[in-house]
Specification:
The chain has 339 residues and is α/β, with parallel strands linked by helices. Strand 1, helix 1 and strand 2 form a beta-alpha-beta unit.
Length: 339
């Protein structure tokens, strides 16, 4: 298989490439990434010399560049590339529409034109909006996004659906809960809290810290996408979740406990606009149809994640210092906001 992975230098995309090359060493993978602030070439150091791996820098919204990639012949596409940080979408919504909506349409059109046999669109549970204290998101839950980020992802999901229904494109959508694990950019909750706790710095938590998310170790997400790529039914949506609901405050306290740091480091700050209260995923469809289930209990996953960040201080330091962007092609990295 010759596989195009968009956004493959990002957190989930890079973990997916590493996973796929381990599992299918004969596959050819083209990593197409613009290398914005969240795209880190360091994530893929271990496969740069792999004969089946190649990297192309480019924008998914650049029709000419995308056409060049597809003209080389592709069997399938796994589409991760997206602006994904909610706080940034509040500050600059237009960037999210351009990349997540317009960019996805460019890819879909190229996939249609060149007869790609499978297009996996990686989305998010945030398109469903906010849950009450009970219940779970199913694939039939109406879309009700509450932030510019989630609205842009919902828009891209609807475009994928339209290309399936109008043009017969063999596309599938996955909607996953919050991921954590190695190589996650340190503006996100878990790596941010780990890096601050290690240094004994205050840990900023939005509002009362009781916002609930369902957490999934990134390798489990990769295994789910693998199954959907090879066996998912065209036109279907598959929810992917870890059945690990935790409040942000529970996550932060777990990190502090693992690192032997005091809870006095927790600092509550003003909540962000449009902050959804709770997400919860019903992943029974992918379990029943494709036999997927997560391999990592949260307790194991969080310990391994903390251990990885503690044993890779140079990776984090290169982001904080901006050294990972020494080629000057984009903005330097920066630590993000609260949980």
């Amino acid at each position: 298989m010759k596989l195009l992975v968009t956004g493959g230098a990002g957190f989930i995309g890079s973990n997916f490439i590493l996973y796929m090359l381990r599992r299918y060493p004969g596959y050819r993978i083209v990593n197409y990434d613009l290398l914005t602030y969240a795209g880190n070439p360091d994530n893929l150091t271990g496969v740069r010399a792999h004969q089946g791996y190649s990297f192309v820098q480019g924008d998914i919204a650049d029709e000419g560049r995308v056409e060049e990639i597809f003209s080389g012949g592709l069997d399938a596409v796994v589409h991760f590339a997206a602006e994904s940080h909610v706080d940034r979408s509040v500050k600059d919504p237009g960037v999210f529409v351009r990349t997540n909506v317009n960019g996805t349409q460019v890819l879909l059109e190229a996939a249609r034109k060149h007869g790609v046999s499978r297009f996996v669109h990686v989305s998010t549970d945030e398109v469903y909006g906010s849950l009450g204290d009970t219940g779970l998101f199913t694939e039939e839950t109406p879309l009700a996004p509450n932030s510019p980020y989630s609205a842009s992802k919902a828009g891209s999901d609807l475009l994928v659906r339209a290309y399936v229904e109008t043009f017969g494109l063999p596309a599938v959508i996955t909607r996953c809960s919050n991921n954590y694990g190695p190589y996650q950019f340190p503006e996100k909750l878990i790596p941010l809290m780990i890096s601050r706790a290690v240094k004994g710095e205050p840990l900023p938590v939005y509002g009362d810290g009781l916002n609930v998310r369902d957490w999934l170790y990134v390798e489990d997400h990769c295994s789910a996408i693998d199954l959907v790529l090879h066996g998912g039914r065209p036109g279907e949506v598959y929810n992917v979740g870890g059945n690990n609901e935790r409040t942000n405050l529970q996550i932060v306290r777990t990190i502090l406990e693992e690192l032997g740091r005091p809870e006095s480091l927790i600092t509550f700050v003003e909540d962000r606009p449009g902050h959804d209260r709770r997400y919860g995923i019903d992943a029974s469809k992918i379990r029943n149809e494709l036999g997927w289930s997560p391999a990592y209990p949260f307790e194991r996953g969080i310990r391994e994640t903390i251990g990885w960040y503690r044993s890779h201080p140079e990776w984090l330091e290169r982001i904080v210092s901006g050294a990972y962007r020494d080629d000057g092609s984009s903005r330097h990295g920066e630590e993000g906001g609260p949980a």
